[in-house]
């Protein structure tokens, strides 16, 4: 993420893909081959950052625990930002032991973090298959805390000025991988500063509207589970027109409708000819 933007469209700091963070992170980790990545499986433990209340209730019932314990656990995570089960003081010891055995506080592995003088935190996370993504937390003097979130590992848009675009496309992020980036920042702000995450911008790695279904699924949970207002969430795009239309279209199936988020279109140039030279997706 670059310095604070003067644009009234996003009212956030803009994202700079020309970063060395991922390269530094890649240098510190063992590179997995394509064959090895295909054989790897996601962690089998329950992810406390991404599990829903309903899912947690059913999980605890399967462990012969009272259903109401799910709300207690979720309150620690969402209201207090606590994901260490040892700190959940109103839970019985046997439940704490079960949670230690069957759950994990996140699946994203922090590989690299850089903190700027203004408090901005830029992170590289390793996914379960070895792919690397970026997330950024940006505090503002007016009290806003904005998370800049990735939607893909790599990017297929091929924008010539963008380091991520030159990396090529690896894969789509799942709704859980997108949501977890936000949940981690929200929890940390709660637990460390008794503060809250106020804004989310989908301006990290990848083209959000090229991963439409997973991004919208994650956004719904940012809104419902984390209480981030729809107008405080901005989706950025180079111009995936069919999905721009889908974003603001009223659908007969209510599940296909999404919160009324903000849309930011990366123009970069005033003419089609110039824009196509820089953004092949144009």
Poorly predicted spans: 2-19, 30-39
Order of helices and strands: HHEHHHEEEEEEHEHEHEHEH
Give the averaged pLDDT, no decimals. 87
- Helical percent range? 25-40%
Structure annotation, total helices: 10
Q: Helices and strands: which structural class?
A: alpha/beta
Q: Report the radius of gyration as a whole number of Å.
A: 19 Å
Number of strands: 11
Walk me through this protein's architecture.
This protein is of the alpha/beta class. The protein has ten helices and eleven strands. The chain has a seven-stranded mixed beta sheet, with helices on both faces. The longest helix has 19 residues. It is globular and about 65 Å long. The N terminus is likely disordered.
Question: Which descriptors would you attach to this protein?
Answer:
282 residues; disordered N terminus; two-stranded parallel ribbon; single chain; alpha/beta; seven-stranded mixed beta sheet
